Amino acid sequence: MGNNTEEKEFLLNHSQNSTKGGLKTIPFIIVNESFERLASFGLQPNMIIYITKFYNINAAHASVLINLWSALSNVLSVLGAFISDSYLGRFRAVAIGTISSLIGMLVLWLTTIFPQLRPLPCGQYQHDCNGTTAAQLAAILCSFGLISIGAGFVRPCSIALGADQLEHKENPDNERLMDSYFNWFYASIGVAIVLAVTVIVYIQDHFGWQVGFGVPALLMVLSVSVFLIGSPHYIKAKPKGSLFTGLFQVAVAAFRKRHINVQLNYNDDSYYRTPESELLEPSTDFRCLNRACIIEDPYMELKPDGKASDPWSLCSVEQVKIMKCFLTVLPMWSTCIMLLVSFSQPLSIYQLLTVDRHITPQFEIPAGSFGMITVLSLTIWMAFYDRVLVPLLSRYTGVPTGISSFSRMGIGLFLGIVATVLSAITETIRRNKAINVGFEDDPNAMLNMSSMWFVPQLALYGVAEALNVIGQIEFIYSLFPKTMSSFAAALYTFGLALANLINSFLVSVVDSITSAGDNTSWLATNINRGHLDYYCWLMTFLCVINFLYFLAVCRFTDQHHHDGRSSLFPEAEEEHSMNKCFHGA
Hints:
Layout: H1 2-17, H2 26-43, H3 47-54, H4 59-88, H5 90-113, H6 134-166, H7 174-229, H8 243-256, H9 298-301, H10 317-334, H11 337-343, H12 348-353, H13 371-397, H14 405-436, H15 455-477, H16 486-514, H17 532-558, H18 570-584
Helix pairs in contact: 2-6, 2-7, 3-4, 4-5, 4-6, 4-16, 5-6, 5-7, 6-7, 8-10, 11-16, 11-17, 13-15, 14-15, 14-17, 15-16, 15-18
């Protein structure tokens, strides 16, 4: 009876949506996502300069604020996906997020228009700076918060909203169509980010903050307009629940049944399974979680159709397996966080402002655009590895991906250490040059030093991220089935948020300790007096410790999952290669 009801509901929804969705809706969704990325990513590179210059906040505190802003955006991306899947639905989530980003960018733009929203500028030698009032600080924080809410709803939901428009399982070309959509979606994001860190940053440097922040606001006006114009044509799927709800349900159900002795031998009928389940009983690892799927009283815990009466008291064997997979990947996932922390050098833009960035006598690369080197090296390395190295390495290793996911993660972490060493050496050379020519008290002076000194470390960061992060995603995919492909992206996003928080903590602690007793902070706004090189060496030390931790985790994990593979879900092994290609882009 239940199956007939579901079939009728599917046929009814399909007939209602037969005139909606399809390829005609995809341009609206891709343009909306691309403009949001272009606008928000274009604000980030130069934001620390804007805050320190117009809000009289020192560089260390500004760095903490920006890291917290990034952390909030990443956390809200995970939360936004949960709210969308469980309550709002994807269309509403994207609509709310786009409008929120627009309002946030308008507020940020207004801070450049009205002097009342900023404190008075500092004196010539910055000894008589005026403090920022609560209202002025509230304005800038409000803009950050609204932009973060927008990113949290738009980024995880746009791609899924587009997939809803093309999801027709009876169409034999559906898989090819979906692959084409994902390729175009990720390509548009890549183009948007490239334009953000080049064109938008260039506009800010050469046309001022009013134009530089006005252009992203205008882009968001276009983003909202385009998205809403396409609204009548969208398939608006109803929320069906989130994966994370299932994880919480397992934890709660296991706690509620903590009195059950899991050491006893239960027969297969004692465990709750969904009708299509291929798993008869839970595994023996993390045995305490098995309580969540044990049926104590079938008359109380099961409905007449065989479903659980209360999903917070009884979970399926599959849900328990997913929870165990989640706990299994956590140690390995945690090893990438320190690498992500090392990518975010707090005052790197101040270093680049003091060196010669000219390509030709007439053209100078904006300091905020040097992040493009990392993006380009990541992209080039991924293409080179996939097309050239994988076929060569697979002949000798017998591994279809060239080398194992563990090896790639380890090489990525090692290259991250080399990059931090290079950054420490480069800053030592730059600082010594500044002091030797008498620029110790003039952080704005231009040194006779090429910006090309910074290219090797930035390029290595890109290669390190390509190796480690893709290795992480591949390892996670090897544990989970294709239906949970978004889980790896959610974990990576949460890792970015945690890295931002750790970065904020490190900057705060280092600045507080090194500036005690009227000493000059390592992270002083005047980087010629500070010791950013010492901070880079500290990061190198922490990355080495993290690498040793990674080796220990590898040894533990390899005992249970040879070469990153798992039999927790049989179909995960078969879909492993397809999933890697899907998110490798």
